[in-house]
């Protein structure tokens, strides 16, 4: 799973370079989560997940509060949650998650981002079966053995616990997100380097230098779209 974690780090590093874009995307995601349930993270699990992710991206409290207050205020703005699947150079696979108030615009924009950069849209299900929904946590200050032991003591099953570079990475089932989070916090973990509900490819692929350059251009084009929240793929970008 090491290469998959490197892909997450690569994506996070790329997004961190444009904080205004990231803050806007989180503002929309927080608003949608708060509007769909109670605007209180103590009772709204979806909102809790988004807020935990927002912490790892250093999203300012003012943006978080503004989005939640907007939901509390009964705003009539509604967003559809959409998932697109497609292919990049050399058959590489991509999943795009979006929140949009204009489905036709978003579909057109996503299709163009694929098509102009050596890719093409696929039908629903053409790619997703090669990915696994996964909860991923990154933390520092503990060893993998220590983390595994404390999770076992809490009677929590996880897929894997690995040491990668200076972090310990925990891979778990999506429905274990809150259980893992609470167990780690109870063990003294106050900050996470990553706390994500993500889609991890079952197998990563390596592209030629030319194909990788084109692939990265396509991913940048997709992530630049206002309506796109997350982009997942199966390309090893660790080199």
TrEMBL record:
Residues in TACO1/YebC-like N-terminal domain copies: 3-74
Residue span(s) of domain TACO1/YebC-like second and third: 80-235
Entry superkingdom: Bacteria
UniProt protein name: Probable transcriptional regulatory protein BTO30_09715
One function term, GO molecular function aspect: DNA binding
Cellular component, GO annotation: cytosol
Name of a matching Pfam family: TACO1_YebC_N
Record-linked PANTHER family: TRANSLATIONAL ACTIVATOR OF CYTOCHROME C OXIDASE 1
GO BP, sorted A to Z: regulation of DNA-templated transcription
Main location: cytoplasm
Cell compartment(s), UniProt: Cytoplasm
Membership in a protein family: Belongs to the TACO1 family. YeeN subfamily.
Keywords: Cytoplasm, DNA-binding, Transcription, Transcription regulation
Keyword Aminoacyl-tRNA synthetase in annotation: no
InterPro entries, A to Z: Integrase-like_N (IPR017856), TACO1_YebC-like_2nd/3rd_dom (IPR048300), TACO1_YebC_N (IPR049083), Transcrip_reg_TACO1-like (IPR002876), Transcrip_reg_TACO1-like_dom3 (IPR026564), Transcrip_reg_TACO1_YeeN (IPR026562), YebC-like (IPR029072)
